[in-house]
Design a protein that fits this description.
By secondary structure, this protein is mainly α. The chain has five helices and no strands.
């Protein structure tokens, strides 16, 4: 709906501040967010996991980064 009007660079910058549970909750809000966050967005999940103490995102491959949340 509003994705065509939204600059993806700005969106990804904002999403980079979220924790994994926040990304998961956001993915559950609309189909557009679900497709975006559950698709080829492993870098967002790795960034979110970097906010969690005791998790080293560099040890995870792209598939595991999203699935760990």
């Amino acid at each position: 709906e509003m994705f065509p009007e939204l600059n993806f660079d700005i969106l990804f910058q904002m999403l980079g501040f979220l924790y994994p549970m926040d990304l998961l909750n956001l993915a559950r809000t609309t189909n557009a967010f679900r497709q975006l966050l559950m698709g080829k967005s492993a870098f967002l999940w790795k960034t979110a996991l970097g906010h969690v103490e005791g998790v080293c995102p560099s040890d995870l491959n792209d598939d595991n980064a999203r699935d760990i949340a």
